[in-house]
Amino acid sequence: MDFLVGTFYSPALFTLRFNAPSSLEIVKRSEACGGHSWLALSKDHKFLYTTVWADPAKVASYKINDDRSATFMNSKPIKAMSGYVVASDTHLYTAGGPTGEVFAINADGSLGELVQELNFREGSGKDDGKTGEVAHGDFGGLRHGSHSVDFSPDGKSLYIADIGHNCVWSYSVDVSAASTGKPPLTLGMKWIASRSNDGPRHTWPHPNGKYLYSLQEHSSMVDVLSVAEDGTTLELVGGASIIPADKDPKDYWADEVRLSRPVKGSPRYLYASTRGLEKSCKGYVAAYRLTAEGLIDGDAIDIYETATSGGIANAVEPAPDSVEKPDVEYMALTDSAEGYVFVLGFDGKKLYEAARTQLVDDEGKTLAAATAVWL
Q1: How far apart are CA 103 and CA 350, in angstroms?
Q2: pLDDT score for 124
Q3: I want to staple 359 with a disulfide (CB 3.0 to 4.6 A). Which of 148, 162, 310, 339 is the partner?
Q4: What pLDDT is stored for residue 93 in this prediction?
């Protein structure tokens, strides 16, 4: 099983190969146009879309080659550093800090014209999120603004988690916008998080479309939101902690929420990760059992302490399949602190490290691993 990993600061993309149960190696290194904090594949896996941590901020497109390397196609400027991108068949959506953008996707997979801009600032036009000095930096407003963008399973709704405004923005998506030329997004709702210190960072939908999982960066909680039939009305119906009961959320900042691979059409588990704010404070990955409908079934099955703090990563990305051991789930885990890329295994009871490697440059300097996508 192959997957791609980007870095936060270096112009390189890495192709890694995991052979279950314990082999992980770097098989390709592709030249990139900058550091890529987030990666997203097209539905057919022929193209890769990325954030670009550069000045000025950009988003970029790549072609995935037969040998699993990536070739740069083009980039487009955006108003503020992006935290996340996601692609439909016709458009690329991005959000970061105070703003977001929608770009058309050309027939060859490259990025086309800007078709819509989003503004998450309110009142006087100044960012009304809480700003100031924070550990690891502000990343152009990402620590105090919008951070992610994801579709509902049917592609008719879109959700943007906003740390600074302590909310999740929901939008309806006009799937005919590519032919009509109209802006595809219409605001549906601003769902305010249940705790004043939550800070929604990322969301992820259940494949039945009835639930949306919201990861809270500041409180290290993962909440379950019900999604009404309109696709945009959200309501809190459950939640769980990502960190052990004896730990203080102030020492952590949660990172990622994802579902396990579907079994008989439905995922069995929910995974969530958090990072340690200080280098000496290790992060965690938690696994929860889900009901058939998609609710969290009790406390975490296991909370795994990661090898490092995770730096500004500790992002988990479950593998789509497991041929060697069908009863074991695998997931990539990226670490920016020491440049490690891990594969974790989960047997339904315990999370464990299955394999690891380290990203380094030609001089042996470690590179800050960002996020992964499975090819």
Answers
A1: 42
A2: 33
A3: 339
A4: 98
